[in-house]
Structures are given as C-alpha cells and as structure tokens.
Amino acid sequence: MPEDYFRRVSPRELFTNGAPLEVDLGCGDGSFALALARHHPDRNVLAVERLLGRVRKVCRRAHQEQLENLRVLRLEARYTVEWLLPLHSVSRLHLLFPDPWPKARHHRRRLVQRDFLKALHDILVPGGEFLFKTDHEDYFQWTKVEVAASGIFKPVDWPADAFFYPQTDFEKQWRAEGREVFRLRAVGKES
Ligand SMILES: C[S@@+](CC[C@H](N)C(=O)[O-])C[C@H]1O[C@@H](n2cnc3c(N)ncnc32)[C@H](O)[C@@H]1O
User: How confident is the model at residue 3 (pLDDT cuts 50, 70, 90)?
Assistant: First the structure.
C-alpha cells in the first residue's frame, strides 16, 4: 500500500535493493509474475491488479514461496503508470492479455493509447522495454499502430527463445484451444 496515492512513490518505497524492476500490469492470477520472480531472484517484480481476490491469491502464493522480490499493488493500471510509479524506474513492463474491448465504440477504453504510451515511456529506464501479448488480432494491430505512431518506441524482434518468458495460465488455455497469440516487444527510444 503506498503511503500516499497522490504522489509518485520513490523507487526505495517499492524495493530497497535497487535491482531492476519489472512490472506485470493486470497480473490476473499472478502466474507470470510469480514465475518471473522465482526465476530471477536478482530482479524485482511488481504485479498490479485491481481485483482484490486475485491480489490476495498472488500475495498468498508469494508469501508461501517466500518470494522477497515480488510485491503486489492493488490499483488501476492506467493510474499506476501515469501517476504512481517513479519516473525512469522500470526496466520492463509486461502487458499480457489485457481486456481487448472489441466493440469500436469501446476502443477508447483500451489501455494502449497514445497518452498511456507516453506515460509508460516516462517510467521506463533508458532502453527499457514494453512487452505485450494478446489473443485478439485487432487489439494487436491497434497496438502496433499506436506504438509506431507514438514515435517514442522502436519495435524489436522477439524470438521465442530470446529469454525466459513463462506462459500465463490464461495463455496456456488459449493455446490449448488452438487460438493464436500475438506479441509485440518495443524498446523506448532515448529522448
Ligand atoms: C484477461 S486477464 C489477464 C491476466 C494475466 N495478465 C494473464 O495473462 O493471465 C486481465 C486482467 O487484468 C485486470 N485488469 C483489467 N483492467 C484493469 C485495470 N484497469 N487495472 C488493473 N487491472 C486490470 C483484470 O482484473 C484481469 O485480472
């Protein structure tokens, strides 16, 4: 729980060890954040989720496994990025299977928008990365266009075996149904 929701937290309020910070935005059941924290004890992982039941479940599992490098924040994703996280503090932000808002009249509710990308760029360290996955092709195309149009991110290759990247339970379920998963990796350009 941040002491004050109306100012940016300082990096030391999140973690005291200064290790690289990775953010899992809309972490759901936390399967990705937990696996990442387990695999990389030398990195800090902040999982963000608005539903209390899911937050409690991830906290419980992190506590059981004594994962000192995982914290869970119960807060709205856009607010977290735009107003709460410290500037130039995040090495990678993961946005995995966000709500696609398929109807055209709801597209403005999609998390990926020009102002969101600008705020995301502001919290990334130089050379920090945005990693995005979706099962929704239209949202994928939308994100590609927004990222290119932002002018502040450069898409980069993301080969399957580039680095450790666990599938969430949600992704495993989609793939088991034979559905395609689309992914995008972009590096923040130096400003
Ligand atoms: C489809 S699930 C994907 C969960 C997880 N990323 C995965 O891949 O398994 C989307 C998650 O994002 C959360 N979520 C949706 N909108 C959010 C918002 N505005 N702020 C925080 N969490 C949000 C939902 O509660 C849900 O847990």
Answer: confident
Instruction: Provide mean pLDDT across the span 133-162.
Output: 96
Active-site entry in 24, 99, 135, 169: 99
Sign of the dihedral through C-alpha 100, 104, 106, 108: positive
**Are 81 and 24 within 8 A, CB to CB?**
no
Tokens encoding 3: 């002491």
Global pTM reads 0.97
Expressed in angstroms and rounded, the spacing between residue 48 Cα and the centre of ligand 1 is 8
Measured from the Cβ of residue 36, the count of other Cβ atoms closer than 10 Å reads 23
Does residue 170 have its Cβ closer than 6 Å to ligand 1? yes
pLDDT score of 161 more than 90:
no
Q: Class for domain 18-188, per CATH? A: alpha beta
In the chain, where are the structural domains located?
18-188
For 71-80, write each residue's pLDDT tens digit.
999 999 999 9
CA–CA–CA angle 133, 60, 80 (5° rounding): 45
Query: Residue 171 corresponds to which tokens in the numbers above?
Result: 């992704």
